[in-house]
Every structure is written in C-alpha cells, then in structure tokens.
Amino acid sequence: MTSARTLNVLGIGGSLREGSQSERALQIALAGAAEVGVRTSLLTGPDLVLPFYDAGEPDRDERATRLVEAIRHADGLVVVSPGYHGALSGLVKNALDYVEDLRDDQRPYLDGRAVGLAAVAYGWQAAVTTLEQLRTITHALRGWATPLGGSINSAETKFDEGGGASDEKSVRTLRLIGRQVAEFAVMRAA
C-alpha cells in the first residue's frame, strides 16, 4: 500500500440468518480486499436492523449512527445482498437509504469510492436482477461500481464456514471484486 494512512473497506450485507450464504460471500470479498493491505470491517444481519429510513427524522439510533459513521470513513465498500423475489433485501436497501445522511458531507454520498457488488439468490433470475438493482443504487449514490460484479446462484454454489465455496470460480470472482475496491482506494489515495 502506498498511502500514509490506513485505508478502510467496509462490507455491508448478508441477512438476518447468522452465517447466511450472502454473508459468507461478503466475507470472501473482504478477504480479497485485505490481500491488498487495507483494513476491512463488516456490518451484517443484526447490525443492519434499523428503523426505516426517514429523511425528515434527524435523530438516529445507535446502530444507524454506527452505520452512517462507518460509511463516512470508508474508502471503499463491498455490498452483498441476498435476492428475495427478484430484488435486493429490505434489510440491505434500508441500510443503503441511510447514505442519504451523507448528502451534505464534503464527500457526499459515496462520491469517490469504489463499491464492489454481489447478489446471492436461489436462482439466476433473482441473482442477476438483484445485482442490477445494486448497481443502479450505487450510481444514484455517486459511487463507482467496480467493473466486476457477482451474481451467484445459491442453488448451484454453496459457501462453507471456512471461507470457501463449492464453486471455485465464485470464490475467485468475489475475491477479485474485493481487490478491485481496495486497489481503487489505494490509487485514489496516492
């Protein structure tokens, strides 16, 4: 790493189920980012159980404040959502809605940050449409979606507790997504 300060890549996603397939996919992507030498952190499941985002309500609970501050200080993000009924989960969407709290920052929204994206769903249709939605949201929030995104069909690919998966190509894809986020952050900081 060429930066004088430690760069941070934040992972957001997963589901309420501990050790979910999407959470394991997120951990693999963050491991790829860590290979570049950045610090990684993770907000999943219970960390994302937040009140529905309300732009008219300025008060935030402890978890919402922690999420917003983590995004504010992140040099890059990796977002992995399960695909539910052809769309990203409400849990992940609500968390991304809180990025609106950064609108008045010197670096508003996700400006100047790479965002690696992946969707994990039981079927290709939901995996692909969920990834497409994540890309659209990232662009709307001024983030730079990495060139590579991941659509993973959990009917075919199973992630294990050890950081691997039944499909090595999925592991390589996720690690590369994490690396692209970290490499972008390093180049931007140089």
TrEMBL record:
- Name the GO cellular-component terms: cytosol
Q: Gene3D superfamilies recorded for this chain?
A: 3.40.50.360
Cite the NADPH-dependent FMN reductase-like domain residue spans from the record. Answer: 8-147
Q: InterPro entries, per this entry?
A: Flavoprotein-like_sf, FMN_Rdtase-like_dom, NAD(P)H-dep_reductase
What GO molecular function terms would the record report? FMN binding; oxidoreductase activity
Q: What is this protein called?
A: NAD(P)H-dependent oxidoreductase
Tell me what organism the protein belongs to.
Amycolatopsis iheyensis
For this protein's source organism, the top of the classification is:
Bacteria, Bacillati, Actinomycetota, Actinomycetes, Pseudonocardiales
